Amino acid sequence: MHDESNPGEAWGLDTLAIRTGHHRTAEQEHGEPIFPTSSFVYESAAEAARKFGGEEAGNVYSRFTNPTVQTFERRLAALEGGERCVATSSGMAAILSTALALLQAGDEIVASRSLFGSTVSLFDKYLGKFGITTRYVELSSLDDWEAALTPSTRLLFAETPSNPLSEVADIPALADLSRRHDAWLAIDNCFLTPALQRPLELGADLVIHSATKYLDGQGRAVGGAVVGPDKALEEVFGVVRTCGPCLSPFNAWIFTKGLETLGLRMKAHCANARRLAEWLESHPAVERVHYSGLPSHPQHALAARQQNDFGAVLGVEVRGGREGAWSVIDATRMLSITGNLGDVKTTITHPATTTHGRLSDDQKIAAGIREGLIRIAVGLEDIADIQADLARGLDALA
Ligand SMILES: *Cc1c(COP(=O)(O)O)cnc(C)c1O
């Protein structure tokens, strides 16, 4: 009988996404089951004692382990090429659990300046309270990273490509730097997923996910995950089982089924994004398109080297500053005006007044978040309809 958790051969990504993780039960189900149970029962007091004491493997309580959650964890670990995955209640919970597991008071984080807004708040406002400090550097400048490292640096943290300007970090170079300083390198792989980028193969120690985005892919559930080596993940697991940011079995099931079409969806997302980026770049009302898939992008070559494709999030600067950007957004009838991404539905947002609205004017300038900038997370509708929806506002602006 084949063991789906241990293929024993080098399966391709789509096969791993469909065939790994599920340990079939005595019911011989074909589809992955959902175990909506908070606790598990035993044949005897002695068995309960062994399971609680950790002398015997097995389920105790769904804050610790749940078979549906473990199916998702094994499948995502296989896709990222990591020894172990721990699922969490959200992407933010994945980042918090990683920090609690690996850091202590006095430690320092060096992170890229262009990070998800809540990640910056987590580092500054909350980890800061407990004596962990964070320095921010230019994502694409290796010199900047190197200069910010001190003997207290324990964690390097980056999102690549960045949101919404599609800047790219050189992962192997950062991995080399972190190894020389005996620090961990964690990559938030939310924008590309293992279908397009495998940070562990490029030398990173840990991969962080907001499963809320492309792993689900259809905007249904909030969740997260951390993937990496057993030793570090055992610490992350300890945080999750003790502090409680565990993933619900139902959400884990949604993500497990989402992973089955991940490869297919990401190809289609990228194809739509490339066509939209090329069309936008030639539009007279557009001043600049930030997308690492365009040859005009300053890091196109690096992105092509370490990524399988370029993702589906575009930064588009239009004429007329905030007024111009808002007029293009308000002229859409189909696109969803929302800050979310990683959905089959195309979303559009004005970063300067939404996702990056809490930044000061100086911080916005440093981060390249101009008033004329629009972010489009390209979905899977027909490309002609996405274009037509944007053309309405852009043509009026041209
Ligand atoms: C959404 C997001 C997060 C946070 O994930 P949640 O699931 O919303 O908690 C972290 N990093 C990036 C890059 C994101 O886009």
UniProtKB/TrEMBL annotation:
Domain of life per record: Bacteria
Record-level GO cellular component terms: cytoplasm
Keywords recorded for this protein, A-Z: Amino-acid biosynthesis, Methionine biosynthesis, Pyridoxal phosphate, Transferase
N6-(pyridoxal phosphate)lysine modifications at: 213
Reaction catalysed by this enzyme: O-succinyl-L-homoserine + hydrogen sulfide = L-homocysteine + succinate
Family according to the record: Belongs to the trans-sulfuration enzymes family. MetZ subfamily.
Protein name: O-succinylhomoserine sulfhydrylase
Gene that this polypeptide is encoded by: metZ
